[in-house]
């Protein structure tokens, strides 16, 4: 599937026209073309490469899945790869959508899989038509701005999930303990994956701002500075969550250790209490005469001794919070 648009003098003139008409539109020096390819095959790549003079290595990067976020400069264009992300609060899984783009002086070609919502990007462009006169810089900014905003929303949702998990750390029920362990490792995995796609965005946006091709003009530069500021907020937020996740895991382990120490104190205290009657009955069970041997008074004395010592140990341990 392919979608097309052409802007002329800052105004949208046509859209969803055939790929064969692109060359005619580009003959007008005031025209800027957007071409969007969804799950293109090799024939589509070959056609686009011939039409726009795209570099072979850039085509190879666009057609290869799971490329890292990056910006590459070529003679006739720049190529960048980025990831739109979403966070599922229920499962704790991170949804990742790869987007590649070729930017020439008068065209932007975007490539992505079918799970990426390009309609949201088009809506972002239509909401900022006053910037359409800046051509490719305007289109590129709208695309990256939507991606970065989505990354920030995902980081905020992950932060909310970690805070909710923090409230369960001190729940002593067995089910809560297992849930904290399972959920914490799931969120940590999602955060690690998020960090891989978020951190390189700084170099990507900064490279576009400083590109030798002059993609961003002076009037669009403040918008790219604002975009770069949003990228920095996302990266700093991600780094803080990384520290927060480590602290959460350490706190969970510390709470489990304290809980285990409490259990061990209780078990040891009860063992000491049980050892008293065992010692007394064992002593009186020797085959030797002792005070009260073969008399009722001896039995009463041993029973009273068991009760007194056991109760005394119980209150002693209770006062020391061992029970």
TrEMBL record:
<keyword id="KW-0812">Transmembrane</keyword>
<dbReference type="Pfam" id="PF01544">
    <property type="entry name" value="CorA"/>
</dbReference>
<feature type="transmembrane region" description="Helical">
    <location>
        <begin position="267"/>
        <end position="284"/>
    </location>
</feature>
<dbReference type="InterPro" id="IPR045861">
    <property type="entry name" value="CorA_cytoplasmic_dom"/>
</dbReference>
<keyword id="KW-1133">Transmembrane helix</keyword>
<dbReference type="InterPro" id="IPR045863">
    <property type="entry name" value="CorA_TM1_TM2"/>
</dbReference>
<keyword id="KW-0472">Membrane</keyword>
<keyword id="KW-0813">Transport</keyword>
<comment type="similarity">
    <text>Belongs to the CorA metal ion transporter (MIT) (TC 1.A.35) family.</text>
</comment>
<feature type="transmembrane region" description="Helical">
    <location>
        <begin position="296"/>
        <end position="317"/>
    </location>
</feature>
<keyword id="KW-1003">Cell membrane</keyword>
<protein>
    <submittedName>
        <fullName>Magnesium transporter CorA family protein</fullName>
    </submittedName>
</protein>
<dbReference type="InterPro" id="IPR002523">
    <property type="entry name" value="MgTranspt_CorA/ZnTranspt_ZntB"/>
</dbReference>
């Amino acid at each position: 599937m392919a979608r097309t648009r052409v802007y002329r003098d800052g105004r949208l003139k046509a859209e969803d026209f055939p790929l064969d008409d692109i060359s005619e539109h580009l003959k007008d020096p005031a025209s800027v073309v957007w071409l969007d390819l969804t799950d293109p095959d090799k024939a589509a790549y070959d056609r686009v490469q011939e039409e726009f003079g795209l570099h072979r290595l850039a085509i190879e990067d666009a057609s290869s899945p799971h490329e890292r976020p990056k910006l590459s400069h070529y003679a006739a264009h720049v190529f960048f790869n980025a990831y739109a992300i979403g966070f599922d609060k229920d499962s704790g899984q991170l949804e990742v959508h790869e987007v590649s783009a070729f930017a020439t002086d008068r065209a932007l070609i975007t490539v992505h899989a079918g799970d990426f919502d390009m309609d949201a990007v088009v809506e972002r462009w239509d909401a900022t038509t006053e910037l359409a006169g800046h051509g490719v810089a305007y289109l590129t900014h709208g695309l990256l701005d939507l991606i970065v905003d989505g990354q920030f929303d995902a980081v905020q949702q992950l932060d909310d999930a970690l805070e909710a998990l923090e409230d369960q750390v001190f729940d002593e029920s067995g089910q809560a303990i297992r849930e904290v362990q399972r959920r914490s490792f799931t969120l940590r995995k999602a955060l690690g994956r998020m960090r891989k796609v978020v951190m390189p965005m700084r170099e990507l946006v900064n490279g576009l701002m400083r590109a030798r091709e002059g993609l961003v003009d002076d009037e669009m530069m403040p918008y790219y500075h604002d975009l770069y500021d949003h990228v920095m907020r996302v990266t700093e937020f991600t780094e803080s969550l990384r520290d927060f996740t480590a602290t959460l895991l350490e706190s969970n382990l510390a709470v489990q250790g304290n809980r285990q120490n409490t259990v061990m104190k209780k078990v040891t205290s009860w063992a000491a209490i049980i050892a008293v009657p065992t010692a007394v009955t064992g002593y009186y069970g020797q085959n030797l005469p002792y005070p009260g041997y073969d008399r009722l008074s001896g039995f009463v004395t041993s029973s009273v001794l068991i009760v007194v010592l056991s109760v005394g140990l119980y209150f002693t341990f209770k006062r020391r919070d061992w029970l």
